[in-house]
Amino acid sequence: MMKQFRIVPTIQQFDNCKELCQNFQIGKGDLVFVSEGTYERYFKHHIDREAYFVNYRKYGKGEPTDIMVESIYADIKDYKFNRVFGIGGGTILDVAKLFALKTTVPVVDLFNKKLEIVKDKELILIPTTCGTGSEVTNISILELTSIRSKFGLAVDELYADYAALVPELLEHLPMEFFAASSIDALIHGIESYTSPKANDFTKLFSKKAMEMILRGYKIIAENGKEARKPLLKDFMMASAFAGVAFGNAGCAAVHAMSYPLGANYHVPHGEANYVMFTEVYKAYQSMKPDGTIRELNIFLADILECEPNEIYNEIENLLNHIIMKKALHEYGVKEEELENFTDEVMTKQTRLMANNYVPFSREQILAIYKSLY
């Protein structure tokens, strides 16, 4: 029987970090991934110093890579630990997942499933952004530097035991990170809704995530960036809802096509997704207008108070209040690279492209890239 829907981590909500730490009693035998700034601001007085702390920013900036993971492993390999805590954005949650496994390196062999994948430690994930949904998914995304591409490992062993949501952790999130992460969550909701693997359960979570994020964006567009502050709990919840949806139904071409831009030009993940989003959905619309995409457009049009045929222009107008969309050439992409981007998507992102609303040919992918150039 086909597996339709499940939520694996136990999801817990806490009012603040002190309450979270009292619950988990973090200390000796715990490996804690957390940035120095987050530790100093939220956890300094609540975590036993006998825990082993990994300040992942020491190992590199931006999106996670295999080199980052192997450097961390070299430093902590002699420390005996039973629990792994990941406290951070998608980068650190994706890295922390790998250290709950019995064998983590060589990373390229792990991602190519040449190593036996066994989870032998408890995993607790605590997001500090409102976008990746990584705390509730079984996916770790890294840039594999040898092939200069982002690559995903999706296995049940990467599910957390606990996903802990603490809205307090978003209070000092700068607008640029809030924007990129929340747009990522919005696109998780949208792509999972139109995935062939979607069902009544995943669509419920997709729709709630989309609604919460878009209604929040309307408030921000009307009242300014600071208007996000009272909405942080909603955005954190929406990110988790979208994570549940795409963890079951999958993401597709928007994510697949964003990866070469992110890996080669270090564009934040959510921003790279936004670059691709509307053109991919306009292509879907032209190829198969009467299926799930029609449902989606009616749903979004109701939230945005426009006609369904205006939805992609309206959604861009709204999202441009959050983060301005750019053309590919503005990131430094050269036109001759578009062929390579296309080949990368066709050969290295088949896991995602299998979830497309309708299949894309190589020519269609290249045409979308060219239209965005």
TrEMBL record:
SUPFAM superfamilies: Dehydroquinate synthase-like. Keywords: Oxidoreductase. Residues 179-373 form the Fe-containing alcohol dehydrogenase-like C-terminal domain. Belongs to the iron-containing alcohol dehydrogenase family. The keyword DNA damage does not apply. It comes from Acetobacterium bakii. Residues 16-165 form the Alcohol dehydrogenase iron-type/glycerol dehydrogenase GldA domain. CDD domains: 4HBD_NAD. This is 4-hydroxybutyrate dehydrogenase. GO terms for molecular function: alcohol dehydrogenase (NAD+) activity; metal ion binding.
